[in-house]
Automatic annotation (TrEMBL):
Pfam families for the chain: ABC_tran, TOBE_2
Statement: the UniProt record of this protein carries the keyword Translocase: no
InterPro entries per the UniProt record, alphabetical: AAA+_ATPase, ABC_transporter-like_ATP-bd, ABC_transporter-like_CS, ABC_transpr_MalK-like, ABC_transpr_MalK/UgpC-like, Mo/tungstate-bd_C_term_dom, NA-bd_OB-fold, P-loop_NTPase
Biological process per Gene Ontology, one example term: carbohydrate transport
Annotated GO CC locations: ATP-binding cassette (ABC) transporter complex, substrate-binding subunit-containing
Name of this chain's protein: Carbohydrate ABC transporter ATP-binding protein (CUT1 family)
Keywords: ATP-binding, Cell inner membrane, Cell membrane, Membrane, Nucleotide-binding, Transport
PANTHER family: MALTODEXTRIN IMPORT ATP-BINDING PROTEIN MSMX (PTHR43875), OSMOPROTECTIVE COMPOUNDS UPTAKE ATP-BINDING PROTEIN GGTA (PTHR43875:SF1)
SMART domains linked to this entry: AAA (SM00382)
Amino acid sequence: MTNLANVAVRNLRIELGANTVIEDLDLDVRAGEFVVLLGPSGCGKSTLLHSIAGLIDVTDGSIEIGGEDMTWADPKDRGVALVFQSYALYPTMNVERNMSFALRINGTPKPEIERRVKRAADMLQLGPLLARKPAQLSGGQRQRVAIGRALVREADVFLFDEPLSNLDAKLRTELRRELKQLHQQLGATMIYVTHDQVEAMTLATRMAVMKGGVIQQFGTPAEVYARPENLFVATFLGTPPMNLLRGTLAADEGKLWFRGPQLSVDVTNYAFKGAPDLTRPCMLGVRPEDVRAGVPGGALQGHVTLVEPMGNHRVLWLDYHGVQIAAIDQDKTPLAGGAPVPFEIDVQHVSLFDEASGERL
């Protein structure tokens, strides 16, 4: 059976040639968690995953798995199983032999191999396909085999390096659901790398948003989405991303206001991290779903520049004094370009950032 192990990364530094890819990084993955490393290409997320797997040597720092120092341990001794972006299946072997290859090489008894392969095949609905070769499988089935090959190892930690990125949208959705159900069945520790925010939001128990080899924010998907720690997280997460308006803070008649272009928003009840600085320019962030378009008598008014139908909702792009504001709208009333649309901002769900540093206020 799969054991549960935590992963602790401390002061990690990784240099590849003359480039520092990861700088002084800490990460704590609890036993049984599904942690997603999310970020744009080149942010260091795959490098971090491969260092945990032992495929990349670290320059400085330490990596513990299950409470044991594995910084310089061989990959085979770390108790991890890695699923790559490419299937990397042996074309001359059938599904059963692809899944059991590592076990056979290690001399695992045949009855134990059969038990593990059957268990993984049942979980991944591969039972009827065990006799087929990779060329006879669809892309989604091949990726299931690659996942099954990792599962039969019954590792302490499962690592996934963008395993769904080569699949079409429908298959990605199906396998994403299956991966989440698999985690619920196994309760195993899993670390998953992706640049797809939908995968991160739906799969993760906690997610680490990365940029330039640095973790910008680490928390539950709900926390990271609702309270982004900086402008990068605010704009990277969300489709469309968070709307941003430049302005300043002002105290007036016992209340605190954000003052922007033709705009005043009461932020008296905003949970500031410290005493608000009224001298520094700041930015107001509001998610598109918190912009209430078409509200009769709305205090603000924009003009339609674009309508994006999305099936069960639409995205309205409104010009507001030269700033483009996205609003998620459920109304189906046709709107022409340039049409005036009154709107309001839900002040209970706004974010404020220091314009210079980009940090959350």
